Each structure stands twice: as C-alpha cells, then as structure tokens.
Amino acid sequence: MMSQIPNLLTLSRIVAIPILVAAFYLDQPLGSWVAFIVFTLAGITDYFDGMLARKLNVVSPIGRFLDPIADKLMIGAAIVMLVAIQWVDGIHVIAAVIILLREILVSGLREYLAELSVSMPVTKLAKWKTTVQMVALGSLTWTSGGAEIGLPAQEVGLVGLWIAAILTMITGYDYLRAGLAHIRKDNAGADGA
After folding, report:
1. Mind listing the pLDDT tens digit for each residue in 174-188?
2. 173 lies in which domain range?
3. CATH number of residue 100's parent domain
C-alpha cells in the first residue's frame, strides 16, 4: 500500500483540476480562497509524491508518466482560468502564453526523446522555474481573497509570472538545444541506414 501513495498523490492532482476550475465560478472572494487552497494542496502533493517515491524507492512507470502530465494539466487549467476571469490580462497574457508554450514544447520533446531512449533530466534552474511558477499562480488564484484582507496577491503573482516566463524561456531553450542535438543524431542515423 505504501508503494501506491506517490501515485495516489499524483492522481489527486488530476482529480483536483475540475474543483480548481469550478472554484473560479463561485462567488468571490470565496472562489478565490477555494482556488488558492486547491492549487496550494496540489503543489504540496507534487512535492511529496516525488519525494516519497524516491525515499520509498517505488518510482513506477505510471508515476513517471502521470506526474508531468498532472503538473501540466494543473498549470494549464490555472492559467486558462486566470486569463478567462481577467486576473491575468493585458500584456501579462504574454507571460502566461510563454509558460504554456514551453510546457507543450518540452512535453513533445520528452515524448520524442523517450522513443530514442534518451532522458532529459530536470535541471536546477528548471526546478527554480517551477517553484516561482507555482508561487506566482498560487498568488494569482488568490487575487480576490488576498484583496479581501489587504494583501497584494495579484501584484505578487504578476511579478512572479514574468519571472517564471523569463526562466521558462531560458530552460526551454536549454531543453530544446539538448533535444535538437539528439534529434540530429537520430536523423543522421536514419539517413545513413
């Protein structure tokens, strides 16, 4: 049973996505509080599922498959809803789109490289990017709730969103460059066959 805990935590993030989306349709500021709590709990489970999998030495194929998908689904859902209700609007949408595009690009690249049996380990800078991104999106989900008690959650979130977007471009470029080197090798092998 202990070996299934990391996978259950990952699945809980996927199950939480409809709750996160529904929270934005609640009356505000209640909806903001619910979205913030759901997003924060999802971030906590993301941390613990990986840590427990390594500590218990129970890294599973399903966990390796679902964990990045759960992350991208949660991030994508949060960004779409934040833009839809205009807590992220104007020029700040550019930062949100950069983050979404990088997530899709890296996912596709990892899938292609997996077929070549090439792994793309997560860099320290990418871990920092994820941390900043989660804090920024968490703050943004709390826009109305934070304003209710006089905290600048939206402002903090927007600054964090831009920092995450800059880190996203740097790490995305690093992944793309490394991935293209493997793709070129694969193409050279295919041409020589």
Report:
1. 888 888 887 777 777
2. 2-192
3. 1.20.120.1760
